[in-house]
Specification:
The complex is a heterodimer. By secondary structure, chain A is mostly helical. Helices cover about 45% and strands about 0% of the residues of chain A. Chain A folds into 3 domains: about 15-90 and about 155-170, no CATH class; about 90-155, no CATH class; about 180-240. Chain A is elongated, with a radius of gyration of 20 Å. Chain B is mainly alpha-helical. Chain B folds into 2 domains: about 1-115, Orthogonal Bundle (Rna Polymerase Sigma Factor, Chain: A); about 120-200, Orthogonal Bundle (Arc Repressor Mutant, subunit A). In chain B, α2 packs antiparallel against α3 (about 50-70) and α4 crosses α8. The longest helix of chain B has 27 residues, at about 175-200. The radius of gyration of chain B is 18 Å and the shape is globular. The interface between A and B is large, with 70 and 85 residues.
């Protein structure tokens, strides 16, 4: 490998930007994690939805379901239905949840308000839990012990990110998927999105009301899993975990 | 595209282009923040030593924090500065994790997390050259100390001003200058060393 002048290397670093595929992959993952980053740019994958999309919907992840809502509402957005590159977050995905240098396991902690200004962030640099478990709407299997994952049960996108064949075949969810109109799914999404937002804001009363409303209106809805996840999180927060 | 218009390195940091700055505008929308800054957070994390296999995880961590704290963002600093402060701390944790658990990288690769984050380059020979330069640049960066690397990346790659860097890193301004000076010397020395090594190859 030949070496280059320093400024050319710096230029190379400045030009190091993600590919559209990488952007799309991360966006899907963030949506699956409940991070409302929007639907982004239109892609050419809208057609990939196809006729089988509805049948598959029941087994798809939270983010993919959100994506389908977007695809229904905004025809140009089919990003999340890209059947090509759905990627698993994996059970071993690291968690950035604890800044303790020791990296010892600690119980999940609820979010606590912290000043956002950079200077203050800097002042708290090493001691601040940057992504407490309260931010993760999906408690799941424990991951490997690492510094960053110590305080959180799992990365939210891990299990739902890659639907299995078994998920696709799940009859309990396939039935409502086939009959649920887009408007119902949108409403389900709105309710649970609000519920997760309320959980994040530690507004347990509102979260409980929204979850209950979803359960009442959509007992066999497409987003049952997400509702159960929200209920789990609610009970954890109610216990002060 | 918003991301094309905002946050480009040619745009002076904290300038009018950083239109999401807080004082005049209400709390910025997360989706807009993401559109405007995602690519630069991605670049920053990579330059700060987050490995490709961990990059998606790190990005998720950054934007989970952003989502949680965006409502508290008071416009006291440029949004870009605020974002990089978060990204910097996430990157530190991933570097630390890698030191403590080198096997975690292999594990992430085994689990399919190796994204092969390829830079956006045009095809052909120029792409190969660009990739080669980029690989060399990352290799040289890896020889810097963490403190030097952070300051160097924020200054030379992200084009931040020294006061902004001081705010992001959380050190006095003079410390920024001294670290940057040392980082540049170290960077140049490492490039020269590698150049000499290449010349001496039979």
């Amino acid at each position: 490998m030949s070496t280059e002048p320093e400024d050319m290397l710096e230029e190379a670093l400045r030009g190091d930007l993600p590919t559209p595929d990488a952007e799309a992959r991360v966006r899907r993952r963030l949506l699956a994690a409940g991070v409302a980053v929007g639907n982004g740019v239109a892609t050419t994958t809208a057609a990939a939805a196809g006729a089988s999309a509805t049948a598959k919907l029941a087994g798809l992840s939270w983010g993919l379901k959100l994506g389908l809502v977007a695809a229904v509402a905004i025809p140009s957005v089919g990003l999340l239905l890209d059947s090509r590159s759905e990627r698993s977050g994996g059970p071993g995905a690291p968690q950035v949840a604890s800044a303790r240098p020791g990296g010892a396991r600690a119980p999940a902690q609820p979010a606590r308000p912290e000043p956002p200004a950079p200077v203050e962030l800097a002042a708290k640099a090493e001691a601040e839990p940057v992504a407490p478990a309260a931010e993760r709407p999906q408690p799941a299997a424990a991951t490997k012990a690492t510094l960053v994952e110590a305080a959180a049960p799992s990365r939210v996108s891990a299990p739902p990110a890659r639907p299995s064949q078994a998920d696709f075949a799940a009859p309990a969810e396939a039935a409502p998927a086939a009959s649920a109109p887009g408007s119902s799914l949108a409403e389900e999404t709105r309710l649970l999105d609000s519920a997760f937002a309320a959980l994040t804001a530690s507004n347990l009363t509102r979260a409980a009301a929204l979850i209950h409303e979803h359960e009442t209106r959509f007992p066999a809805g497409l987003l049952q899993r997400e509702r159960e996840r929200a209920k789990t999180r609610l009970s954890e927060l109610s216990r002060g975990e | 595209m918003v991301a094309e218009a905002l946050g480009r390195r040619q745009v002076p940091p904290g300038s009018a282009a950083d239109e999401l700055r807080g004082t005049a505008a209400p709390t910025p929308d997360l989706a807009a923040v993401y559109e405007a800054h995602f690519r630069y957070v991605w670049r920053c994390l990579r330059s700060l030593g987050v490995r490709d296999a961990h990059l998606d995880d790190a990005l998720q961590d950054v934007f989970v924090v952003v989502q949680r704290k965006l409502g508290e963002f008071d416009g006291g600093a440029a949004l870009r500065t605020w974002l990089y402060a978060i990204a910097l701390r996430i990157a530190r944790k991933y570097r630390e994790r890698l030191r403590r658990e080198p096997a975690s990288l292999e594990q992430a690769r085994d689990e399919g997390h190796d994204n092969k984050a390829e830079p956006m380059t045009s095809g052909g020979e120029s792409a190969l050259l660009s990739n080669e330069r980029l690989a060399l640049a990352h290799a040289v960066l890896a020889t810097l100390s963490d403190e030097q690397r952070e300051v160097f990346v924020l200054a030379r790659v992200e084009q931040m001003s020294a006061p902004e860097i001081a705010s992001v890193v959380g050190v006095p301004l003079n410390t920024v200058y001294s670290r940057l000076r040392a980082a540049r010397l170290a960077f140049e020395a490492e490039v020269a060393r590698r150049r000499g090594a290449t010349r001496n190859q039979p």
